[in-house]
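Lay summary

Proteins are chains of building blocks that fold into shapes. Our project writes down both the chain and a compact code for its shape. Here are two examples, one after the other.
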Amino acid sequence: MAGSDNFGVEKGMGSRAIEWMNSYSREKKKEFEARLEGYQISSKNFGNFEIISWTGNWSDARKIILKVSTKLSIKVIESGYHQKDNLFLSFFGLGKEFAKVYKKGNYIGTIVLGIRSGKWYIKAEKPG
């Protein structure tokens, strides 16, 4: 079963989003469970996000994070994208991880994430 800690939901909406996503996944019998990580990241262009971790199926996770963005009219970060030539480096925390930012289910930009002391931070961002 896959898992990650690199998705995010709009600050102030974390608990509500987690509750909705977990309820939706149980109802639809999807392999997905999310929880808040207890820290935030800040973006100049997109605002602040609460980081969430999840376990389950990658495909289900991506669909559910987009669905919660639409249903709750919030911004979300959908991460897990890597440059193909740097996949090896990313396993050791040396590569870049890219994330798409969505608002109400619509793509609004991209951010580049880095990791420091086990926590994600934003290296760069670009409105879409």
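And here is the second example, written the same way.
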Amino acid sequence: MSGNSKRKALKKAPPQRSAADAPPMSHEKERRIVARVYALGEPLCESEGIELVCVEYQRESRGRILRLYIDKPGGVTLDDCAAVSRQLGDLLDVALEEIGTYSLEVSSPGQHRPLGKLLDFEKYRGNTAEIRTTLPINGKKKFKGVLEGVSDDTISLRTNSDSLAIPYGLIARARLVNYTEKTDVNTRH
């Protein structure tokens, strides 16, 4: 055997990519995915006596997260969350291939209850909310104030300085602030 034997060149493995390295998804595509998840998830939740409160789909440091908030009278249990996660996860794997790699989280709304549906802004009228918009309104994208109602797909929000009209289509994210059923001004006892 010759001293000049060929050595295999060691190839450097390409850097590993995580889901967080994925290119950003357009806001419109995210909205389409959220709408599709609502369409698939609402009937599933309703069949279990559960309300699908909100669906969020966003990119975080650990990758893309599909977060569902569910509720029912008396509150949801861990078993409710696990059942919805299992059933919806299986359904999404088949019906929503374009979603790519994601983590599915299902939980109760908690005290910072998300507002996902137009009806939620009317339902929680009189409660304090934080709203983030996709485009600036009066030079700002973040607002905090009391929900005053809904008219023609526009949310009325009373802040410390004035009242704002926020088009529903511009809302990127909205949540109640420190909400509990005990503080719900619309609850009649």
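What can we say about the second shape? The two ends are 94 Å apart (CA to CA).
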